[in-house]
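Human: You know discrete backbone vocabularies at least as well as I do. Show me how you would write down a chain together with its backbone fold. No explanation is needed for now; the record alone will do.

Assistant:
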Amino acid sequence: MASWNAPNASWPRRLFPPDDQVAWEKGHGRLDRRRLKRVTVTPEEIGLCGCWQVIAVRRERIELGAKAGPPTDEIGYYATSAVTDQYDDQELLAAITGHWDAIENGTHYRRDVTFREDACSVSKRGAAQVLATLRNLALGLHELALERGATTAPSATSGCRRMTFTTALAWLRR
């Protein structure tokens, strides 16, 4: 499922289900409400091979607590190969939310905890991209080594400390 965000979206907000039909969810120090609108398309109409629906998800968020900022209201757009009757609205919302949860709680969390990425003070765009690529490579190599039983290191940090360039290159060539 491809996606993109549009903070000042062109879809009128009136196209989404009304306020009284969508409940607020409380968690992580905020209130969230998501609404979904989908349009059936053909791959020829949209110009995307295998695309059968375009989905818009309106995300409203109210931060709670002393440091709360202004409420946000964004619309994210998604393209999917799922046909219209394959999933209902709630299943599509769960898939979209689950996708972002996996990214935030998986890759981002591991990069931040393992390599303290959020604390990195590199400010040059090119250097930051190189460091992000190296972090991803290190995590990927560690996962590959775990899968192949080539390491018993409990974390990517300790695994990468033990890894040599020759070993990493050999794993990549297999």
User: Anything to note?
Assistant: The chain has a mean pLDDT of 81. Strands lie at 2-6, 25-27, 30-40, 53-63, 72-80. The chain is about 40% helix and 20% strand.
